[in-house]
Design goal:
The protein has one helix and four strands; from the N terminus they run E-E-E-E-H. It has one helix spanning 64-68; strands spanning 2-4, 13-15, 23-25, 34-36. The protein is mainly beta and 70 residues long. The strands form two sheets. Strands 1-4 form a two-stranded antiparallel ribbon. Strands 2-3 form a two-stranded antiparallel sheet. A hairpin with a 7-residue loop joins strand 2 (13-15) and strand 3 (23-25). It is 7% helix and 17% strand.
């Protein structure tokens, strides 16, 4: 389960008083705006595949005839 980050209030940004830029990514949620209720860590999107399925049923560029074994 996820919860809104209590440090940045779900915005993913927090005011930055150390440098000249006004805002920086929230260090608690890594700019995601949410954290895990169990671990307190932000979601790890790197484990999700970003490759989109082309919808092609074939593997290795085989023909439909080869695919169905006719």
């Amino acid at each position: 389960m996820w919860q809104k980050c209590p440090i940045c209030n779900g915005t993913g940004k927090q005011e930055n008083f150390d440098t000249t830029s006004k805002f920086s990514h929230c260090k608690t949620c890594a700019g995601k705006g949410i954290i895990s209720e169990l671990t307190g860590l932000p979601p790890d999107y790197s484990s999700i595949s970003t490759v989109k399925d082309s919808g092609d049923f074939r593997d290795n560029c085989e023909s439909q005839k080869d695919y169905y074994g006719r």
